[in-house]
Design a protein that fits this description.
Mean pLDDT: 93
Largest sheet: 8 strands, mixed
Oligomer: single chain
CATH architecture of the largest domain: Sandwich
Radius of gyration: 23 Å
CATH superfamily of the largest domain: Cupredoxins -  blue copper proteins
Strand order of the largest sheet: 30-31-29-28-33-40-35-38
CATH topology of the largest domain: Immunoglobulin-like
Structural class: mainly beta
Number of helices: 4
Number of domains: 2
Shape: globular
Length: about 575
């Protein structure tokens, strides 16, 4: 038996309009919860993928979506650590592809404005079939359950998956991962939250029930009627193209929380726990809690967890707000007790392109006092250990090297690298003056997903991934590594010597400057922001599954356009018999 629980939201009141829609008009929608029985050792459930029409705002016509179990976002799945769950993801999607996708020259018309603005259709998107594969982001599971991008299925097929859930309490999320069209499929609505619970989390007695609420943030654009100019509710995937031909990732003018544009939430003057996920294609958010006068109240907010679980202690929000990149999750506590009768807004103070409403949602705090037995603990996770080279990180570990860059056409690329004894000349070379190891020369193994696999890691082994963003400019990339949770060891800035014209470094990269990690970045994560001109080093153990996995930029447009590469995890006993190009592990 599977229990599905719907939670009602509050009443509707009007607020100021924008793009013809009233802000904070609609209550926050809470996705239903699928909670397998904890006493059953394993359970099999079916989650159908179906076409659905759903209003994103009460002033809009319904939007055509593709959904998990008829909900956008999909149901929140809650499981106990160590309890196996088998899911049949059943593709039952009928009808045409629900996106109108258009593109046009950069600068001619803002893509953060509703309507097509004369942009031509992107050829082929309207013809796409419902070809889907589900990735449980953050799961340690065999590769056959991981959602390999090529292994998508058409309508009438099911993807049978097994999740062991042998992980500590943490927020995972599930979304589509089909090769080359992940950006489109996720955009149609195929995403949802998956929470693992454990005894350590239970012992904290954190705010729960109606006071533990998912906040799944995503941006979208909408088409307009050609004659009246009214918003139609039709999802519009509208992107600009740079002069060199590189497509700029999607960014839209409407921010949705739990599938509602600019919602409100009625709260009591007590502590609340929010499970925050940035499910946007590419937008970064700089989140702040502000009152009606615009005064920031981030001191009422504490971070207690990240992608991979609970932090050792509550952490304040960074100065200027919390930067949330696509796919990052945050476990957030907010104390509303001092705001009785007030209205607060969750605001993005880093909107990027113009024309974006900075407000995400409104909190309406009840005016009467409420008893709250919760007090913020000094310690959160007692099982947490900080990874330190030469101390808590096992001395015997692998090293993986990855370069992020812009090519001569301005298109972002991701290379995995193998180390050489000397510079052979030519393109595809990255040299580093490593403070820990002197001059190191690396050669590109692959830059497209279907190039030669170059990274092989033994099961249960620790690996340090060194990610070098060698571009002189361009975007930050949120890099996601499947199968593992990792900790950031350091973040270092440098002045790049990479020449896009030559496709290599012109001199060894060096003169590194340490960039302090945010306190929460010391937590367990599976997605890390890598800024231009930075070397970010992360360490994780590759256990709980074997096979061929993926690592990629989680800007979905970048992932689909080449910034994704494979790696293999196999038993060490098998590894010595495995013949493959590149000569083996990256040490």
């Amino acid at each position: 038996m599977t229990e599905i629980i719907e939670r009602p939201a509050g009443a509707v009141t009007l607020s100021g309009p924008d793009w013809g829609l009233a802000k904070f008009l609609d209550p926050l929608r809470i996705p239903p919860v699928i909670r397998p029985h904890s006493w059953w050792p394993q359970e099999m459930i079916t989650i159908p993928m179906v076409a659905k029409r759903q209003r994103l705002h009460s002033m809009l016509p319904p939007s055509s979506l593709w959904t998990y179990a008829g909900h956008f976002p999909g149901p929140t799945i809650e499981v106990r650590s160590g309890k196996q769950l088998r899911i049949s993801w059943s593709n039952e999607i009928d009808g045409p592809f629900p996106l109108v996708a258009v593109q046009g020259p950069l600068g001619e018309a803002p893509t953060t404005r509703p309507g097509r603005e004369g942009y031509p259709l992107i050829d082929g998107v309207a013809d796409l079939p419902s070809w889907t594969v589900v990735h449980l982001h953050g799961a340690r599971t065999n590769a056959g359950n991981d959602g390999w991008a090529h292994n998508a299925g058409l309508k009438g097929t099911s993807q049978l998956t097994e999740y062991q859930n042998r992980q500590q309490a943490m927020p995972l999320w599930y979304h589509d991962h089909a090769m080359a069209i992940t950006r489109f499929n996720v955009h149609t609505g195929l995403a949802g939250l998956y929470l693992i619970r454990d005894d350590e989390e239970d012992a904290l007695d954190l705010p729960g029930g109606d006071r533990e609420i998912p906040l799944i943030i995503a941006d979208r654009n909408l088409d307009r009627d050609l004659e009246s100019g009214a918003l139609t509710g039709q999802l519009l995937y509208k992107v600009p193209v740079a002069p060199g031909g590189a497509m700029i990732p999607f960014s839209g003018p409407f921010t949705l929380v739990n599938g509602v544009i600019w919602p409100h939430l009625d709260v009591e003057p007590r502590w609340y726990r929010f499970r925050l996920l940035n499910a946007s294609n590419s937008r970064f958010y700089r989140l702040n809690l502000v009152d009606e006068a615009g005064v920031v109240h981030n001191d009422a907010v504490r971070l207690i967890g990240t992608d991979g679980g609970l932090l050792p202690a509550p952490a304040p929000l960074p100065d200027g707000g919390l930067v949330a990149a696509p796919a990052e999750r945050f476990d957030v506590l907010v104390d509303f007790s001092r705001f009785k009768g007030e209205r607060l807004r969750l605001t993005n103070l880093d909107p990027g392109l113009g024309g974006v409403e900075p407000d995400l949602m409104e909190f309406r705090v009840e005016s009467r006092s409420r008893h709250d037995s919760f007090t913020l603990p000094e310690r959160v996770s007692t099982s947490y250990t900080r990874l330190v080279h030469g101390e808590t990180l096992p001395e015997d570990h692998d090293h993986v090297w990855v370069a992020l860059l812009l090519n001569a056409e301005g298109h972002p690329e991701m290379w995995d690298l193998e180390e050489l004894d000397a510079d052979p000349g030519g393109e595809g070379i990255v040299q580093v003056d490593d403070p820990a190891g002197g001059l190191r020369t690396f050669r590109r193994v692959g830059k497209l997903f279907d190039d030669t696999t170059g990274i092989f890691i033994n099961h249960d082994r620790w690996a340090v991934w060194n990610i070098l963003h060698v571009a002189a400019g361009g975007p930050a990339h949120p890099v996601h590594i499947h199968l593992t949770e990792f900790q950031a060891l350091f973040r270092r800035a440098f002045t790049t010597t990479f020449s896009t014209a030559d496709g290599r470094t012109s001199a060894p990269i060096g003169s590194f400057t340490d960039v302090p990690l945010e306190k929460y970045e010391e937590g367990w994560k599976d997605t890390i922001i890598v800024n231009p001109g930075q070397w970010v080093s992360v360490a994780g153990q590759f256990s709980g599954g074997t096979g061929e996995f993926m690592f990629h930029c989680h800007i979905l447009d970048h992932e689909d356009e080449g910034m994704m590469r494979p790696f293999v995890v196999h038993p060490p006993e098998v590894a010595k018999f495995h013949l493959h190009p590149g000569g083996g592990h990256h040490h």
